[in-house]
Amino acid sequence: MALPIPPAPTPTVLSVDDVALRRGCRYATVLIDAVTHQRVDVLPDRQAATLTTWLCEHPGAEVVCRDGSAAYAEAIRQGAPQAVQVSDRWHLWHGLGGAVEKTVIAHSTCWRTPPPRQPSQPQQPSQPVRAINERTRARHAAVHELLGQGVGLLECARRLGWALNTVKRYTRAATAEQLQRPPRYGRTLVDPYRDHLRRRLADDPGVPVTPAARRDPRAGLHRQRQPAGALPQPGPRPGRARSPATASPRRLDHEQARRAGRPRPQSPRRAAARPSPSSPSTSAPSPSCPPPGAATIWRTG
User: Fold this and answer.
1) Do the beta carbons of residue 34 and residue 17 sit within 8 Å?
2) What is the pLDDT of residues 32-51, one digit of tens each?
3) What pLDDT digit, counting tens, does each position of 62-98 carry?
4) 241: pLDDT confidence band, cut at 50, 70 and 90?
5) Residue 1: which pLDDT band, with cuts at 50, 70 and 90?
6) Are 213 and 198 in contact (CB under 8 A)?
7) Distance set, CA 192 to CA 15, 212, 214, 224 (Å)
8) For 57, phi and psi rounded to 5 degrees?
9) Which long-range contacts (C-beta less than 8 Å, at least 24 apart) are formed by 66-74?
10) Which residues of 54-81 are buried (b: 16+ CB within 10 A; e: fewer)?
């Protein structure tokens, strides 16, 4: 006989987060003890009423760690009003990083302005303007020009052919620089050799980057030659060609076989059923049979 599992006490420091059972379709709420990192319970959905009911049935939580969900905040406020709500570490750092990035972008014009050039210093080549930045400035100017004429947001969206949320985003920004984002660089094969390539470009600004990286063995991107006696690289698998000249005759239709000059083989049954050109035609009437339409005379004994 199986014994029932004794109910575990409610942890004083509780962590609440959602988990995807099927991404984009079904979500659940997982409750974890923030001290022991043990799972406490799993709720069938992430609705505020479900979490409120669970907190009312399991009192004792003093600190509840959650993400930025407003539904969880309302559920904790109703189910455990005495508990202190705190943000978890990942969402705290994520929100802080986003706020710092927005602040730096908003003040990007302060550090983009180069220092005054001395008369003896050579003129530095200006950095190319990104196309997305030019498009952002043009859109920002178009929206604020219509707003200055007294046009509403809906009318601006209709005239420009944009979504209403896009027009609102450009309206909230005082300058176009607040909407610009720095370019995001992903990991590439050039990352370990980027400093070397920059030194090459500083020594010779006119050299193209791609040929320089391929010619220089120190960049690690040059094409390696096969040593003598090395086995050749495997080519395409045989039998994958679909040309009528190389494909199997059984895979060709009658038109392809006629163009390629390769008659398509027939099955023995079909070949036996078709008469040969030398055999007499079956359309001619047999001598023992009367021709069609001839009168038949019946003789009686």
Assistant:
1) no
2) 998 998 899 999 999 999 99
3) 999 998 888 999 999 999 999 999 988 888 999 899 8
4) very low
5) low
6) no
7) 41, 15, 14, 18
8) -80, -20
9) 66/15, 66/16, 66/17, 67/17, 67/18, 67/91, 68/95, 69/18, 71/46, 71/47, 72/16, 72/46, 72/48, 74/48
10) bbeebeebebbbbbebebbbebbeebbe
CB-CB contact of 29 with 46 (8 Å):
yes
| 15 backbone dihedrals φ, ψ, rounded to 5° | -115, 130
Contact 37, 25 (CB under 8 A): no
> In this structure, what token pair is assigned to residue 147?
């707003």
CB-based contacts of 26: which residues, under 8 Å, 6+ apart?
20
AA identity, residue 147: L
Q: What are the residue ranges spanned by the domains of the chain?
A: 13-91, 133-179, 191-220
Q: What is the pTM of this model?
A: 0.43
What is the CATH T-level fold of the domain 13-91, as seen in this structure? Nucleotidyltransferase; domain 5 (3.30.420)
Q: Which two tokens stand for residue 30?
A: 């997982």
Q: Which residue has the tokens 């079909």?
A: 270
For 101-118, give one letter per residue: b (16+ CB within 10 A) or e.
eeeeebebeeeeeeeeee
- In angstroms, the CA 37 to CA 298 distance is 109
Q: Which residue has the higher pLDDT, 186 or 88?
A: 88
